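Request:
You are asked to prepare a plain-text protein record giving the amino acid sequence and the backbone structure tokens, at your earliest convenience.
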Amino acid sequence: MIKYIFSAVAFICCIAGFGQPVKDSLLAKDYKQVEDRLTVMHYLDHMATSYYDKHPDVKKGSKDTNFVNYYSGVIVSGNPVVAITIPEYLGYAANEVPLNGTDFFERVAEKNIQSLVSIIEMYGYPSASRVKVNVAAKKNMMASIFVSRTDKGDDKLKKLIKPELKIGNMSENEYDTLKFFMSKRK
């Protein structure tokens, strides 16, 4: 009986650990694409929050000509990653632009959380120790910042982050930060 229990435990441990080597090898293979994606995510987050902080009173859905010009002239043209276009990443049609900073902020937050979830599912949590992302003068940006912007991905993230902590893809600090952001919304 003990032999069967030991075999079952060994089998379960093998299955549980099987996914991590696959994720690590995929991350190694696709490192540049993941780094580029995270760079665009951090860039857009920075641009959206900077504009939103300066113009918080613009109502959702109302047209802000200053923002439309800012989007095309500064945000799109300042994209730090040539391989990813800003409109395509955000899901805008050709020649479509966000109406204002509030709409842009919400779109960025939603797309970034979707991207974060898909990165975690495919490669594991993109901790600062696994993927180095540098945006402007800021070094080693943490992916947990995206969770502070919206609650849209909370259900999926709650299921994903505990195993990522257990296998070492994220630090206790990153895990605690994510949990803190998600707990503040209740």
